[in-house]
Write a structure and sequence with these properties.
Elements (H helix, E strand, L loop, with lengths): L1 H4 L5 H17 L2 E2 H8 L3 H13 L3 E5 L9 E5 L5 E6 L4 E6 L4 E6 L7 H17 L6 E8 L2 E3 L4 E5 L4 E4 L1 H9 L3 E5 H12 L1 H4 L4 E6 L3 E7 L2 E3 L28 H5 L1 H12 L5 H9 L3 H25 L3 E5 L7 H14 L8 E4 L6 H15 L6
Parallel strand pairs: 4-7, 7-11, 12-15, 15-16
Antiparallel strand pairs: 1-3, 2-3, 4-5, 5-6, 8-9, 9-10, 12-13, 13-14
The structure holds zinc ion.
Zinc ion binds next to helix 9.
């Protein structure tokens, strides 16, 4: 990344620049005078930091409306020429995004091989041709969202049963091949980070849980503004036991959230009662059309997920729960049921939690992958 590449910058200068970038991102456009007031830095320090950020192309200057005198010069992020490459393995897509998380260009990620190291070689080739078709100096970094267990600091994919990968040195290899910073994250965490980075309402949330509910169910827990990983498996809400005598789950246990309401289970339930096999898109249409059986199933899914959320609330007491993933497309009906169950069964004090659906705000895994690079770029440096 542009400012990270400049290893010679002193810590304080870098800290000030990041502080200014973060403020401009949150409240853009801002004048130098406003920046000095907000940061409590001297006008000279702000001026120097802004000059450097303008010089490396991270900021651009515009003219504000005049209130009589000279038009004020305002600063905003330079969206043009600051690009991020996002890689998503669930949808098998690569995208070029801007700093606002908007997808500018997208192409399929195609593999001939199913062997981990060979797939890594193919990924490297595809990324190289995308980079070569643009100006390399405009690309700040590459973010990769992987379904599975990852070690983001070492850039390793520890285990992805979905991709058949084990102990794969993803980012060290790509950084060596491509000469750009590469960041990798678990797909569920990347999705939550995408929401937190690019959805204004979530940017300042310190304590929230992002539930990804669809063909599988997982959660990302953010407490005190930090993602909680535990020993690496924190957030496996899909295998929270809801009914210990319930149906068998793929994990070997019974009655897990996922065994009860993952999309294939809901579609099977619909088929059992009506004899009709539907895709999820068709099921959504049935819900929208008021089909009685489909509505019953939404009520069931909301009830079961609601019980899971009551447990989450009692354990973590978040301010906000965001439900994303395909199930969130079931809409307000689902959300109301979740709120109803929390309000009936939650402890006093946990019931005030807000429940939101990610819905149309959700940019999916590519936006999540892009947020890995953007977040890193806007993270305040820590004295080592
Ligand atoms: Zn399970």
């Amino acid at each position: 990344m542009k400012e990270l590449k400049k290893g010679s910058l002193k810590f304080v200068q870098r800290y000030n620049q990041t502080l200014i970038l973060r403020l401009i991102r949150q409240r853009s456009p801002l004048s130098r005078y406003e920046l000095a007031k907000l940061t409590k830095l001297s006008p000279t320090t702000v001026g120097n930091a802004v000059d450097e950020l303008l010089a490396i192309g991270l900021l651009r200057e515009t003219e504000g409306a005049s209130s009589g005198g000279r038009k004020p010069r305002l600063l905003e992020l330079n969206a043009k020429g600051n690009l991020v490459i996002a890689v998503g393995f669930m949808g098998r897509q690569i995208a070029l995004c801007n700093l606002q998380g908007q997808i500018l260009e997208q192409q399929p990620l195609v593999f001939q091989s199913q062997d981990g190291p060979q797939m890594l070689e193919e990924l490297s080739q595809q990324l190289k041709s995308l980079i070569d078709s643009h100006q390399r100096e405009n690309i700040l970094g590459i973010g990769i969202s992987v379904p599975g267990l990852v070690d983001p600091s070492g850039g390793l994919v520890l285990l992805s049963t979905y991709l058949g990968w084990e102990s794969l040195p993803l980012t060290p290899r790509l950084e060596e091949d491509l000469g750009l910073p590469v960041m990798v994250e678990n797909d569920g965490i990347a999705l939550a980070l995408g929401e937190k980075t690019f959805r204004e309402a979530l940017e300042k949330e310190e304590n929230f849980v992002y539930i990804h509910a669809g063909y599988g169910i997982g959660a990302t827990v953010v407490l005190g503004g930090e993602i909680q990983r535990g020993e690496g498996l924190a957030g496996e809400i899909g295998h929270m036991t809801i009914d210990w005598q319930g149906p068998q789950c793929s994990c070997g246990s019974r009655g897990c959230l996922e065994a009860l309401i993952a999309i294939p289970r809901l579609l099977a339930k619909y088929q059992q009662s009506t004899g009709k096999a539907l895709t999820f898109a068709q099921f959504k249409e049935k819900v929208a059309g008021g089909d009685e059986k489909a509505l019953e199933i939404v009520d069931f899914a909301g009830g079961v997920l609601g019980v899971g959320l009551v447990n989450v609330c009692n354990l973590l007491n978040p301010q906000l729960i965001v439900v994303g993933g395909e199930l969130s497309l079931l809409g307000e009906l689902l959300r109301q049921k979740l709120c109803q169950v929390i309000s009936l069964n939650g402890l006093p004090g946990t019931k005030d939690v807000q429940v939101q659906l990610a819905g149309p705000h959700s940019g999916g895994e590519l936006v999540g992958a892009a947020s890995l690079v953007v977040e890193k770029m806007f993270a305040l440096p820590v004295m080592s």
